Amino acid sequence: MVGLCIRKIKSSEIPVLSNFLYEAIFIPDGVEPPPREIINQPELQIYISNFGEFDNDICFVAEADDRIVGACWVRIMNDYGHINDETPSFAIALYKEYRNQGIGTALMETMLRELRERDYKQVSLSVQKANYAVKMYENVGFQIIDENEEEYIMSCDL
Asked: Which residues form the N-acetyltransferase domain (predicted)?
């Protein structure tokens, strides 16, 4: 991998978030991936629709091999991991071939630093219980605060 760079997203790059929204969908082994159009559903569009128009929209990207290979973004929204109206919800995704190389952890740590600098008190996310990323989230400071049959709601105190 040539020169990993983590940086804030440029406004001209915001459309790439639709790719990472799709990549963020957890697909268990042996399960057929959903059609790409699934990201057009309102409960998923909330993560990216009009991104960048609000002060609490923050996104960092990982660039490697001269392309964006991952994104980590937050916004305050009423999504699956919603806790309250002061807590941003966290989303992260990497293209498959860039996973398990520490890039996701680096993106998350960069975002957590940014949120601390902006005086947020916590950040939340939801993750399917079977998702291998649960361990990564715990390793950077997220804790399970609630759960349902399929998902954990996790938060990280900043």
From this structure: 12-158
